[in-house]
């Protein structure tokens, strides 16, 4: 087992990893930018190393600084969390070259599954259902036009290096294709330095449902049920739940088997998710694979009583998984609390938290790194907390979430707490009748 793990991340996920390491008797090293000097992950780690100024490119994305921090503290493993370098093949490779275990996928695995066009071809070969569309990257607009006609409108243009909704365009008719092609490529080039595009059939009334998987270094994989992530704004998840209200036992079995097949076909090692689009007829199609822990992993932990971070560490240390597939025994909902103003188009709201009262009680979990007096820097993602409620039924989990949100007080900044409180009363959400288009018609009610 590892003696010391460096967490190459910040905020709540860094704190989450530190907690499990402490329970396992493993020493921890936090890294931080100058903007994060007062963050709780810095305070609770056994050691902490400043790796640069506030800019991510000069700190959390600066591989040489992180490797140096690991070497001077004698860390024998690095946990990347999510985001930043968690799905960076070069970083995984550099860790290996320095004899530091990367707690995540291998460089080869990240390369295979990180490029969406390559991942789709790999999944086709594995026999996993895929969305109809282009055979890899489209060479030019003529290829794009031909593919759209063969696939049939509506279609979705996607940047192969994309993420967070950048480089994506829905096209409903041919006369709009050229503009979509040009703008998507421009956006992708600006965001990722890569304007390669591929195309998929646009799935109507889709649900975004992902399957949590774990694979070990002996070629065995298992799944830990699904998560419904369909409530999104600009392709960013807002709330997630497990089980999905759209799920059936038959569909879970089929999707679970497909996800395990995908993981074992590529001999996947570590925790990851296989993400699917599910249409209104419950046909499902492979969308992408995330070769890391997900933001929303706590709801899976809650419904099957399982520590996914612990499992990640064990697998990285060479321990075999049980191979057991899981079904949810309870219902769990997660609300992502962001430092944003939902009454003004979710405008970011960094600043100092003057008052914080955390909700509690049976079935309530709060993952956060903030506290009263903490200043939220403007340099990073705006998520400051994840509020999770768990109960025997979906309605009980919703009722518990309402109560927890009413208890949750954060002053000094704007947060998305009012949005989530309204969401819990929205008839379509309460009925479980929502798709990825849910937020297209959602409107915040005026403040009471």
From TrEMBL:
Reactions catalysed, as given in the entry: N(6)-biotinyl-L-lysyl-[protein] + hydrogencarbonate + ATP = N(6)-carboxybiotinyl-L-lysyl-[protein] + ADP + phosphate + H(+)
Keywords per UniProt: ATP-binding, Biotin, Fatty acid biosynthesis, Fatty acid metabolism, Ligase, Lipid biosynthesis, Lipid metabolism, Magnesium, Metal-binding, Nucleotide-binding
Record-annotated ATP-grasp domain positions: 120-317
Domain Biotin carboxylation: 1-444
Coiled coil residues, start to end: none
Keyword Lipid biosynthesis: yes
Alphabetized SMART domains for the sequence: Biotin_carb_C
Biological or metabolic pathway of the protein: Lipid metabolism; malonyl-CoA biosynthesis; malonyl-CoA from acetyl-CoA: step 1/1
Stored Gene3D superfamilies: ATP-grasp fold, B domain
E.C. numbers: 6.3.4.14
Keyword Protein biosynthesis on entry: no
InterPro entries reported in the protein's UniProt record: ACC_Biotin_Carboxylase, Acetyl_CoA_COase_biotin_COase, ATP-grasp, BC-like_N, Biotin_carboxylation_dom, Biotin_COase_C, CPAse_ATP-bd, PreATP-grasp_dom_sf
EC top class named in words: ligase
GO biological process: fatty acid biosynthetic process; malonyl-CoA biosynthetic process
GO MF term list: ATP binding; biotin carboxylase activity; metal ion binding
Function: This protein is a component of the acetyl coenzyme A carboxylase complex; first, biotin carboxylase catalyzes the carboxylation of the carrier protein and then the transcarboxylase transfers the carboxyl group to form malonyl-CoA.
Subunit note: Acetyl-CoA carboxylase is a heterohexamer of biotin carboxyl carrier protein, biotin carboxylase and the two subunits of carboxyl transferase in a 2:2 complex.
Protein name, entry field: Biotin carboxylase
Native source organism of the sequence: Nonlabens xylanidelens
């Amino acid at each position: 087992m590892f003696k010391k793990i460096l967490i190459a991340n910040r905020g709540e996920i860094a704190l989450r990893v530190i907690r499990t390491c402490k329970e396992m008797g493993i020493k921890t090293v936090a890294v931080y930018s100058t903007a994060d000097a007062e963050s709780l992950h810095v305070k609770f780690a056994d050691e902490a190393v400043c790796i640069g100024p506030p800019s991510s490119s000069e700190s959390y994305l600066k591989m040489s600084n992180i490797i140096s921090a690991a070497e001077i503290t004698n860390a024998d493993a690095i946990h990347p969390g999510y985001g930043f370098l968690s799905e960076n093949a070069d970083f995984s490779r550099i860790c290996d070259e320095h004899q530091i275990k990367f707690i995540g996928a291998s460089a080869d695995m990240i390369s295979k599954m990180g490029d969406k066009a390559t991942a789709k071809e790999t999944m086709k070969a594995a026999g996993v259902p895929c969305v109809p569309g282009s055979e890899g990257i489209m060479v030019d607009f003529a290829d794009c036009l031909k593919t759209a006609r063969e696939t049939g409108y509506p279609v979705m243009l996607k940047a192969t290096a994309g993420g967070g909704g950048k480089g994506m365009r829905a096209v409903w008719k041919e006369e709009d294709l050229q503009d979509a092609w040009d703008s998507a490529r421009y956006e992708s080039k600006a965001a990722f330095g890569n304007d390669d595009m591929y195309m998929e059939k646009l799935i109507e009334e889709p649900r975004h449902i992902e399957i949590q998987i774990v694979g070990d270094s002996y070629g065995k994989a298992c799944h830990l049920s699904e998560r419904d992530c369909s409530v999104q704004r600009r392709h960013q998840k807002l709330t997630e739940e497990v089980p999905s209200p759209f799920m059936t036992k038959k569909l879970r079995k089929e999707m679970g088997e497909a996800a395990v097949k995908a993981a074992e076909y590529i001999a996947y090692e570590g925790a990851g998710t296989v993400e699917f689009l599910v249409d209104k007829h419950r046909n499902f199609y492979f969308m992408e694979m995330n070769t890391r822990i997900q933001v929303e992993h706590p709801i899976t932990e809650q419904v099957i009583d399982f520590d996914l971070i612990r499992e990640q560490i064990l697998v990285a240390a060479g321990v075999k998984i049980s191979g057991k597939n899981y079904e949810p025994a309870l219902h769990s909902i997660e609300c992502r609390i962001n430092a944003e103003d939902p009454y003004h188009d979710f405008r970011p709201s960094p600043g100092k938290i003057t008052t914080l009262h955390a909700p509690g009680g049976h079935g309530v979990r709060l993952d956060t790194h903030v506290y009263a007096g903490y200043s939220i820097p403007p340099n990073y993602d705006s998520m400051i907390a994840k509020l999770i409620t768990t109960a025997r039924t979906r309605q009980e989990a919703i009722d518990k979430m309402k109560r927890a949100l009413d208890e949750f007080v954060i002053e000094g900044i704007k947060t998305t707490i009012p949005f989530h409180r309204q969401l819990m009363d929205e008839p379509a959400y309460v009925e479980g009748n929502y798709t990825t288009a849910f937020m297209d018609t959602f409107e915040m009610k005026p403040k009471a």
